[in-house]
Amino acid sequence: MHNIFQVTIKVTKKDIDTLHHVNNAVYVKWMDMVAYKHWAFLTNGVTVSDCVWVVMKHEIAYLKPAFLGDEITVKTWVGNTQGFKSERLMEFYKEDVLLVTAKTTWGMLSASTNKPKRINKDVYAVLYPES
């Protein structure tokens, strides 16, 4: 089973579009925020040097809308990781109803050169703490 990390978000007025539901672009911002929080959680007390992550691709399926005042639970975990790429998967729920699924392909770069950097065993151990 995956190590699932969860974040709860309360939908505010700034998240709502002219159709009176959460704007699709807001989910992308939430995805970035949740990924950052998960990485901070995984690296708490661990030194990971000379690496930065950049988004290479998002795949998002918008299944049901969310509205002002809704409480959204976001579940995330690390998917397939190889070479310099790692997938992050997310599911957005209102109660037990699945609203959105997403997969982001991240690329790891060397912080000093900004060039792709192979994910080494130390980073792999951070991404998959159960391994």
Explain what this protein looks like in three dimensions.
The chain is an alpha+beta fold and 131 residues long. The chain has two helices and five strands. It has a five-stranded antiparallel β-sheet, with helices on one face. It is elongated and about 45 Å long. The chain starts with a strand and ends with a helix. 19% of the residues are buried.
Salient structural properties:
131 residues; elongated; alpha+beta; 20% helix
Provide the low-confidence segments as ranges: none
Main sheet properties: 5 strands, antiparallel
Distance between the termini: 11 Å
**Tally of strands:** 5
What is the percent of helical residues? 10-25%
Average pLDDT for all residues = 95
Write out the strand line-up for the largest beta sheet, numbering strands in chain order.
1-3-4-5-2
Q: Figure out the total of helices.
A: 2
Calculate Rg over CA atoms: 16 Å
Question: Which outline best applies?
Answer: elongated
Q: Bin the strand percentage.
A: 35-45%
N-to-C SSE string, H for helix and E for strand? EHEEEEH
Structural class: alpha+beta
